[in-house]
Amino acid sequence: MSITKLTTNGLTGTKYDIASADNYYMEPIATQLLGSATSSVTFSGIPQGYKHLQIRITQLNTATATTNLRLNSDTGSNYARHYLYGGGSSAVGAAGSANQTSIGVLYNESTTYASVAVIDILDYANTNKYKTIKSLDGWDANGSGYVFFYSGLWMNTAPVTSLTFLPDGGNLNTNSRFSLYGIKG
After folding, report:
1. What is the enclosing helix (H) or strand (E) of 147?
2. Domain holding 171: CATH number?
3. Strand order from edge to edge, sheet including 162-167
């Protein structure tokens, strides 16, 4: 049976308001599909009219490596990060690491199997607080694999205007895809 009609009968208040619902959506900003291996991917000139940013990545590295994120080309020790990960038989948690020069957002264990990630940057344009980043990523290696959860903090109140992704070893390989979305709110 297919749906032929949707109504809002009985739904009232701002939470279910049709006008309000139109203000909460995800809009594509930019995508980069790599035609050759490269040492980094950058999105610059990020529009400031959204509440949050989301990046979706499908990536293969030329070496086993963590892909790191830098905001606004900041290479100083202004980042903190944490992570948890697990495979089929174990789970590992790591304590926070402060004074970092980037935030880990994706781990690639294999040069054969692609990793995927969904990364959120919350309140990226807010000039009254530091920027919080969370990433859920993982890969399946034909029956084995891992799931990672990263969280991080950029200790700066500047609005985010650029994002740079760079592996800590090897290169980002051909056909890796990086897609940037803005979330209204």
Report:
1. strand 145-154
2. 2.60.120
3. 41-44, 162-167, 65-71, 103-108
